[in-house]
Amino acid sequence: MQENRTLARPYAQAAFERAREEGGLAAWSEALAFLSAVVADPDMRRVISDPRIGRQRLQELLFNLGGARFSPSFQNFIKVLTAARRLGISTAIARLFEQHRADAVNVAHAEIATAYALDAAEEARIGNAMQKRLGKQVLIKQRIDHSLIGGAVVRVGDTVYDVSLKGGLNQLANLFNWK
Known about the structure:
By secondary structure, the protein is α+β, with helices and mostly antiparallel strands. It has eight helices and four strands.
């Protein structure tokens, strides 16, 4: 997975710069999401990995599937990915593109994992704290993880804030194992 991120990074950066030049961040975002959904399909994965299917035919298939959502410059991007045999990292490219896009508009996406659903006031309190800490508008997505017992794990990009009971118990266990 980390290897895919490393491979995807320059493609995502190039896609973001091109989309920004065109003033089409939303269109590229939609096109990348669609491409990654198509490439993630098991049947399509077999087609992509089939050596009997030429690059030109694969590109035509993708262009037909994408239709009008694939601009000429996005089609060129697909040609580059196809030539480099990098269609398989489309999901990682889309994810990194979205991170670039969020950074450009000063927004951070936070995932909060809790043992139980948060009410609106708790979510707002955590969101405000994260906004102060990051200096960005924070968009929150909640996820339930009953193994946490209590507390929360907040993930913003590559940074994780673990204030869960499970995390605290793990830290305590590590402390006792070291001495």
